[in-house]
Amino acid sequence: MKMENGSVPKPKHFPSVFDRFQTLVTESWGAPFVAFDEGRAVVWEGYKERLRERALGLLRADAWAETDIGSGVIAQRAIQAIEIQETGDMVNNLVFWQNRFGHANRDHRILIECASEPKLCREVEALLFTLYRGDVADDRIAGAVAPLGFRSGGTARRPCLGRAGGACGVGGAVDGR
Q1: Which of the two residues, 8 and 83, has the higher pLDDT score?
Q2: Greater confidence, 174 or 125?
Q3: Minimal CA–CA distance to 108: which of 162, 48, 149?
């Protein structure tokens, strides 16, 4: 979130920024923000869990076999799970995947590049297989993904779709920023 002057608020500014947010929400909707699972927030943000479930259904990580690594199957399913653009509110707006500003600006470009780079495909699919089907401690993820160009602002987060038992939801770290 940016303030009106374009700066990013510091933690000490949170109370005043939240007060402004509360005022805007209350004036706009007639009731204050309480939680993301009720009121206006659930109307605005409630699609995210449905989007996550749809993405996981497309990903089908439970059907992956080790023999799929390097075949392109895993990368293709990951691309399908990211590029959700269906009717209604079933659109993935959590990952910048559209090709509006060139391929280099697509958050999942490394997955797309797997189709033409067999070595990269093996590396990426082995990583995805390990993350979704293996037993990797959260504190080891950043070191595993960094060499392949996955970054997440300096924090270890699951790739954008989460995995069974993961808490990240759909939004996440298969991003090149």
Answers
A1: 83
A2: 125
A3: 149
Cross-strand pairs, 175? 151
Backbone angles phi, psi at 175, to 5 degrees: -135, 150
How much is the CA Rg of the chain, to the nearest whole Å? 18
Cα–Cα distances in angstroms (integers) from residue 14 to residues 3, 8, 18, 123, 168, in the given order: 11, 11, 6, 41, 23
Please calculate the CA angle 103-84-59 and round it to the nearest 5 degrees. Answer: 100
pLDDT tens-place string over residues 1-24:
555 666 777 888 889 988 988 898
pLDDT on residue 31: 87
> What is the distance between the alpha carbons of residues 46 and 44, in angstroms, rounded to a whole number?
6
Q: Region 137-145: what's the mean pLDDT?
A: 72
SS3 state at 172: coil
Among 151, 135, 163, smallest CA distance to 59 is for 163
Nearest-5° Cα angle at 64, 62 to 65: 125
Strand partners for 91? 85
Q: Is residue 56 scored above 90 in pLDDT?
A: yes
Q: How many helices and strands, by DSSP H and E, does the chain display?
A: 7, 0
